[in-house]
Amino acid sequence: MIALHDLVKQYGTFTAVDGITLDVKPGEIHGFLGPNGAGKTTTLRMIAGLLKPTSGRVVVNGHDIATEPELAKASLGFIPDRPFIYEKLTAGEFLRFHGGLYGLEGGGVTGRVTEMLDLFELRRWEHELVESFSHGMKQRLVMCAAFLHRPQAVAVDEPMVGLDPRGARLIKDIFRRMSERGVAILMSTHTLEVAQEMCQRISIILKGKIIAQGTVDDVKRMAGGGDDHLTSVFLKLTGGSALQEIDEIV
Amino acid sequence: MKGAFTYLLLPHFWSSRNRGRRREPGDLTRGLLFGGVALAVFAALFWGAFWLTWQLDDYDELGDYLLRLGLSWLFMTFLAFLTFSGIVTALSTFFLSEDLRLLLAAPVAARRLFYARFARTVVQSSWMVVIFLAPVLMGVGLARCAPISFYLTSVLTVVPFAVIPVAVGTACTLLLVNVFPARRARDLLMLMGLLFAGSLVILLRMMRPEQLMRAESLPDVTGFFATLQSPVTPLLPSFWAGEMLFASLKGGWDLVHTGALWTTAFAFSVVLRAADERWHFAGYSRSQEAPKARFTKLRSLDLIVRVLPWSPVRRQLLVKDLKVFMRDVSQWSQLLLLLALVLIYLYNFRVLDLQHIPYMSGFIKNIYAFVNLGMAGFVLATVAARFVFPAVSAEGPAFWIIRTSPISMHDFLWSKFWTGLVPVLVLTEGLTIAANELLGVDPFLKVVAACAVVFLSFALVGLATGLGARYPRFTAENPSQVAGSYGGVAFMILAVLLIIVIIVLLGWPSTTYLIYKLRRMPIGTGRLTMMAASFLAAAVLSISTWLMGMRSGVRALVAMSD
To answer: Could you tell me the residue range of the domain that residue A63 belongs to?
Structure first.
């Protein structure tokens, strides 16, 4: 459903994404893990059609984003790490506009908007300006918008940031239900517990390259660990930090 | 409807409507203030155009010729302005605008996005020209008793006339962004624009208009017109627009130039659309890549500031403010332009042969010292509004660092004050001393003006800092937005009033002194006391404005923390 073929992105001489190949199948939740600056957001932005790859292909629902951008984007729901929302629109206006961008028309839009606002517990704020929303509320509104057109694939960058435990639980449940209905989800996250709990497969990216890929158990084996927690495996694979120095510094 | 490009403009309309519905405190005052200023400008432009056209009517064919030429030159000026404005606006609307992240991730056809962005670029680039043209064309039309069709033609002229240069500007931006990353291109454009404006002013200066004051050097009329004509002029849309309007003014209809204007606008839009479809995404993608293309370490600044006898907190605030200022091209380049204007102002005094200008000799020349003081005051107020007033707002979303650090709001604001005061004082004091020296005014007036600038600097910088803290706009995208806000305009009005009052308070005793000196009469004790009181009142007014402004600012910041 989301397929990346030898994807490369260079910023001048710096290679941010270095030949990534990845395939997220329908109904799969795929965790995209890596330390800060590893190339996760750059990859997701290329999938969303916001960045032009230096080389390689991005295919969403069978449509190449370079040659059939509109068809590819129509199948995708994208939730960025720093979403843009028109601050002077109300939540309802923003969602109706967003629906229109994806070709949703007629009375069905209003019903769908209400449905999504109910699902993400934002109905009370439908007629409030977005500028008055908290970070968590904005995050939930962006998710409403991303799921409004019933996408077949979802690319999401750090979905849990800024959400309270109730919101985080809600998102996890929604992702699970979507995956059961055949939606492919590629989720970048730093919260390894979330990845361990939700993802069927994970990819660990470091310095633009995928260094480990498979189920959580596969990745644990690759790191040479047995019953290690995913955090320890992640630190082993990505180099971790000089823990011994912390005491001296603090 | 949803397939039309206009759908993409809806959020802007809805946002404006929502903004209009939810009134904020001060909206009425702001509306009245800006509305009043706009009305005054509109009336002045209308009256000026009406009067000039009315006068030209007395010269029959020559008047017609001059009017025709004037219209063409008016549009020629706008052509250059609109092209440059198109370049700058397109950079923002096509490449740097935040909502592109939302629109480009959605399945929106490139062509549809282009039309929406281009429509926005044309409107944003040309609204000022349209607002300027409306009263001018109304004035011309009414003075010549033009038929209704003239006003219709005006609309039919302005629309394609705006599209053509904006399309050219947008094409330049498309090219530029595909060569340089957009953020770097914006800096380059800022600098280019200011250099363009600066060189235009210098060019005008080099034409030496002061020679016009001598009758023997006036150019003859034929030579004058010859310079205004050029073989390229008839090929420009400005000429076509002028011809269209002139024909319409006479009750006719210039189909050739109407056709030329509309077909060119259409052709340019089509070609631009094709280029945009081909290169826009590549340019947008590049614009995401190099937000930190330039970096200036300014290590010497740290070394210089380290020797200042200040607390570490104040030193660090100063270093931070100076580095932010110097790394932002849009900031210091405006200062460069201002300096260029000041130098030209001074150069004027140098080249003017004051002895041969009857009204610039003797006593009147000394009076002119006060005009000069007023000029220095306005420069001071402008610099304070543009650079000092936004100082607190410039902290932006990072203001939490100040609020959570162990620094009092009093220290913070006073640090902003001193940082602003020094350059402002040096600039205006230098300007006043140099101008008075070149004018050759009485030594007494030189001292009065120099002292007045010191007091005015303290008062206006204190007022700007205080009001800037009282009416901050932490979400503003740039300092110009802050300077143009309600607080910024309020500061300018107060500043102008203060300058006028100070000049009156200093003017009366100074002229009295000069009159007595000229008549070689001693000044009586009573009058001397009155004169001293007037000087004292000016000093007290300045000091109280300074201290009250600062106190009000500190209070507002403290209240914000509460």
So the answer is: 2-75+151-249
Asked if B288 reaches chain A (Cβ–Cβ under 8 Å), the answer is yes
Please tell me the pTM assigned to this model. Answer: 0.73
| A209-240 pLDDT, tens digit each | 999 898 888 887 776 766 667 777 777 777 75
Q: Which residues contact A28 (CB under 8 A, 6 or more apart)?
A: A1, A179, A184, A185, A200, A201
ipTM for the predicted complex: 0.85
The CATH code of the domain that includes A205 is 3.40.50.300
- Which two structure tokens, joined as six digits, stand for B456? 């005015």
Torsion of CA A159, A161, A165, A168, to 10 degrees: 0
Q: What's the gap in Å between the CA of A193 and the closest CA on chain B?
A: 29
In a domain, A138, yes or no: no
Q: Please name the member of A11, A84, A100 whose beta carbon is closest to the beta carbon of B101.
A: A84
Find the helix or strand (DSSP H, E) in which B462 lies. helix B443-470
Report if residue A220 sits inside a domain: yes
The count of structural domains within chain A is 1
Q: How far is CA A83 from CA A87, A88, B228, B362, B418, in A?
A: 11, 15, 54, 68, 39
The answer to whether the Cβ–Cβ distance between A88 and B98 falls below 8 Å is: no
The amino acid at B301: L
Q: Give kind and range of the element (H or E) at residue A31.
A: strand A29-33
Residues sharing a CB contact under 8 Å with residue B295, sequence separation 6 or more, in sequence order: B327
What is the 3-state composition of chain B as percent helix, strand, coil, each rounded to the nearest 5?
85, 0, 15
What is the pLDDT at residue B444?
Answer: 86
**Range with lowest mean pLDDT among A7-11, A210-214, B147-151, B399-403:** B399-403
Q: Tally C-beta pairs within 8 A across A and B.
A: 78
